[in-house]
Amino acid sequence: MKPRHRRLAIAGGVLAAVGVAAALVLNAFQSNLVFFYSPSQVAAHEAPLERTFRIGGMVQAGTVQRDGTQVSFVVTDTAKAIPVRYEGILPDLFKEGKGVVAQGQLRNGVFVAREVLAKHDENYMPPEAAEAVRRAQQGKLANTLEAAK
């Protein structure tokens, strides 16, 4: 093999290896990408059925039910509400009427959470959840004004 052909073969091999590595990294990134949805978006069937995603909003007052380590509650953005089921120990800051983000999958209309995150102080709500609540409240206000006309 001539030196020129050897250099082309090495360059081709390096290029192929870089391409395979880039494809594997992008595939792993795509597999681990988790999107955020509000309860209104989940109720409108915008959330994926077969993939993990995050849902966030407020824990609706009076909906927390505990049975050992199994907990069920309802997450709302003031417009729509989605029931959530979680098995495990909840964060200490988890309370009714406070902000929460849960990660899991939607199964038969119930969000089955694998992880539950609670807000960390009195003024904090995840930006996505705050935006979802704000949009839901604006939608309710617009509907109320339309009904009043």
Automatic annotation (TrEMBL):
Recorded GO MF terms: heme binding; metal ion binding
Subcellular location: Cell inner membrane; Cell membrane
Gene Ontology cellular-component terms listed: plasma membrane
Entries under Pfam families matching the protein: CcmE
Gene3D superfamilies (alphabetical): Nucleic acid-binding proteins
Spans through the membrane: none
InterPro entries linked to this entry: CcmE, CcmE-like_sf, NA-bd_OB-fold
Extracellular-facing ranges: 29-149
UniProt keyword terms in alphabetical order: Cell membrane, Cytochrome c-type biogenesis, Heme, Iron, Membrane, Metal-binding, Signal-anchor, Transmembrane, Transmembrane helix
Main location: membrane
Residues annotated as binding heme: 120, 124
Positions on the Cytoplasmic side per record topology: 1-7
Membrane protein topology class: Single-pass type II membrane protein
UniProt-listed GO biological process terms: cytochrome complex assembly; protein-heme linkage
Recorded family membership: Belongs to the CcmE/CycJ family.
PANTHER family per record: CYTOCHROME C-TYPE BIOGENESIS PROTEIN CCME HOMOLOG, MITOCHONDRIAL (PTHR34128:SF2)
Protein purpose: Heme chaperone required for the biogenesis of c-type cytochromes. Transiently binds heme delivered by CcmC and transfers the heme to apo-cytochromes in a process facilitated by CcmF and CcmH.
NCBIfam families assigned: PRK13254.1-1 (NF009727), PRK13254.1-3 (NF009729), PRK13254.1-5 (NF009731)
Protein name: Cytochrome c-type biogenesis protein CcmE
Organism whose genome encodes this protein: Piscinibacter koreensis
